[in-house]
Amino acid sequence: MTIAEVKSILSMPKRICITSHRNPDGDAIGSSLGLYHYLIQAGHTVSVIFPSDFPLIFSWMPDSDQILISDLELPKVRKVLLEADVIFALDYNALDRIDKTGEIIRPLSQVPKILIDHHREPELFADFMLSDITASSTCELVFDFIHLLNDADKINKTVGECLYTGIVTDTGSFKFATSPKLFRIVANLLERGVEDYRLQDLINNCLPEKNLRLLGHCLANRMEVLPEYKTGIITITKKDYETFDIQRGDTEGIVNYLLSMSDVRLGCLIMEQPTIVKISMRSKGDFNVQEMCRDHFNGGGHKNASGGYSHQGLKFTVEKLKNLLPTYKDKLLNI
């Protein structure tokens, strides 16, 4: 499909479903709700669907209480998807990233699908794709998408707040994945009434006490630095999950603290969950954690921010990572 065909489809009210990935982050939520608030201005009936619930720190976002969660209400999600005239795929590159929701969508060949995403190697399931791995976030691309439809005037304060949220969270408050174009977009959003100080406060200063105690525990008791590989590792055990009552989103951002050390180029957060071990990686410069996660930990993502998982237990997974480091030593030391 061309953008002209997309515009034609959206020219009359439709039943639209917006989908995004499991464990939604600020970009998934911001892009989905930003697009939602844009589309309802044209009279569309819009549903937002996530496979799993989102962190409570984003519950302030307008109409976040309307989001459908497949894990909690799959029959309703199935009904809404089967009745949809258009399906959007935001912030994910393959249908298996949305679990059972993807299984429902895949056979719906007659329903136009529109993908807006910035991850590498997108699966070719969509009829229209706005895919750009150089973009800071999917929110940046939703901004572009609305402009491609010649509807820039519909980016009101509410749409702008949602898009700004995803941009701030996916760039680490403008610490990485930035560009001159991105700052022009942010300036445009501020001109439309977005209050950057208020949103930064809502996004970054909303942690309960337990999260700070968890962070302190991770840095004091669970951090290991391997200077010969410029690598830092933090592990979180099942016991830690119980002690600190860790819920979805509580570990967000912990891995970034490893990169605050000047001599660390690779930061790894390894979490022992009930059925799997989850891995979150961040890197500086040219070291590509997307390839590392893809090749060894069933995952992927971005060059400097990726994730994966293992079914082989916490101790084995940590040892596997350490055994891989000599292979990457030259790249880590930037030789």
Shape: globular
Average pLDDT score: 95
CATH topology heading of the largest domain: inorganic pyrophosphatase (n-terminal core)
SSE succession: HEHEEHEHEEHHHHHEEHEEHEEHH
Number of domains: 2
Strand order of the largest sheet: 3-2-1-4-5-6
What is the CATH class of the largest domain?
Alpha Beta
Share of helix among residues?
A: 25-40%
Describe this structure in words.
The chain is an alpha/beta fold and 335 residues long. It has two domains: 3-204, inorganic pyrophosphatase (n-terminal core), CATH 3.90.1640; 209-332, Diaminopimelate Epimerase, Chain A, domain 1, CATH 3.10.310.30. The chain has 13 helices and twelve strands. It has a six-stranded parallel sheet, sandwiched between helices. It has a six-stranded mixed sheet with strand order 7-8-9-10-12-11. A hairpin with a 4-residue loop joins strand 7 and strand 8. Helix 6 crosses helix 8.
